[in-house]
Protein: ABC transporter related protein
Amino acid sequence: MKQAVMTAEAPIVPASHASSHERIIAIKELNKWFDEFHVLVDIDLNVDKGEKIVICGPSGSGKSTLIRCINRLEKHQRGSINVMGHELTDDTKDVSRIRQEVGMVFQSFNLFPHLSILQNLTLAPIWIRKMSQRDAEKIAWKYLKRVNIAEHAHKFPSQLSGGQQQRAAIARSLCMQPKIMLFDEPTSALDPEMVNEVLDVMVTLAEEGMTMLCVTHEMGFARRVADHVIFMDEGKIVERQVPEKFFSEPENERTRKFLKQIH
Ligand code: ADP
Ligand code: MG
Structure:
């Protein structure tokens, strides 16, 4: 049990404040190669519980590879990645446990096409979390309502719009009750009129305190929810700033150029 700090010298630290500085991801001198190609170069990145980080940068700069390393969809060759106290190494027995705690939403929604939306949501909780079907369905309905697609629960993915499919994919991740959510350009494959319905779900999730790493070029979203915005280029983190500073006076020339291009 954590003791409350109540000595005469120290102020009382409310529990919520104390937990907000819990380090949940610690990446140190991360390097990764695809054969000869040095895709991630000396990446240092710390994320505290409840923090929201937006990652942007040109195509091919290593954004997807970085977040895929965090749930071990990619292996790194040098440096360390610690997720919730677990070091990710070749002999990490806990990779499946880490993946249970780290939800991921991709650009291409990756729903199972032959399963209904409801079945998509209950599959992992039943098979991996060993929940009863009844409990899994209870949680599934909760998140289907949360992302506003409950009326489509018995349809197949192909019967839904892109925006609805992506909201279903987010709900599916949430059914595993992850501690961290990774998003890799979740709105890039959507028609423009569907982008906001997905961003709204992400904003709500952020407001509820989820720890989030989002690769996105939706700068309105970044301004609204990000604690920090990271700019990557050629496998490196070139800049990390609070949004106000990132957008108004970025320090790096490459960041300035990039921001001009996407506006
Ligand atoms: P981003 O998400 O920023 O567009 P990626 O992380 O997808 O960048 O890719 C970074 C670079 O690594 C790109 O040049 C890409 O072609 C290369 N790359 C990505 N995945 C692989 C892979 N599995 N094998 C070889 N090269 C890869
Ligand atoms: Mg990418």
Observations:
- Residues 63-64, 184-185 surround magnesium ion (ligand 2) (CB under 6 Å).
